[in-house]
Amino acid sequence: MIDLGISKMALIGAVALVVIGPEKLPRVARTVGTLLGKAQRYVNDVKAEVNRSMELDELRKMKDSVEGAARDVEQSIRDGAQDVHNDLSGLDTVTPATSYEATPVYPVYRHPKKNWRLKQGAVPHWYKARNKVRSRAQSGAARVARHRPRPGA
């Protein structure tokens, strides 16, 4: 990279002061600083993207090696199971050879039985009656009719 010492920066500043002028120099310095900052951010973004792609390639290689090892283990287990099956079928002459592959058994879904009615039913009726808790829903018309004064009374 370019080796800029204090003497070279002072020389560049003096030339810029003469060429640009003292009134425009702060604005030009701000613009140059902004452009240098943008350039540094761009370079950092490019570096980060390259690093991410390299890590992604490494992860893909690792995934492929793990999948290969898993396939090898699975094949060796199948070979061993086939050997055992052949040995057992050779010994058992009375019944025909059957496949011993286990089918997975999944648990049956059971509802957690969260029922708000059970919680409401846990409160005793005497407590509801004393605190005037409504136990039955009533329509608006029925409520008005219930509290309407009777015509003969």
UniProtKB/TrEMBL annotation:
Its main location: membrane. Keywords: Cell inner membrane, Cell membrane, Membrane, Protein transport, Translocation, Transmembrane, Transmembrane helix, Transport. It is found in: Cell membrane; Membrane. Residues 144-153 have a biased composition (Basic residues). Signal peptide: none annotated. Gene3D superfamilies: 1.20.5.3310. One of its GO terms (cellular component) is TAT protein transport complex. NCBIfam families: tatB. Belongs to the TatB family. This is Sec-independent protein translocase protein TatB. It comes from Pseudacidovorax intermedius. The gene is tatB.
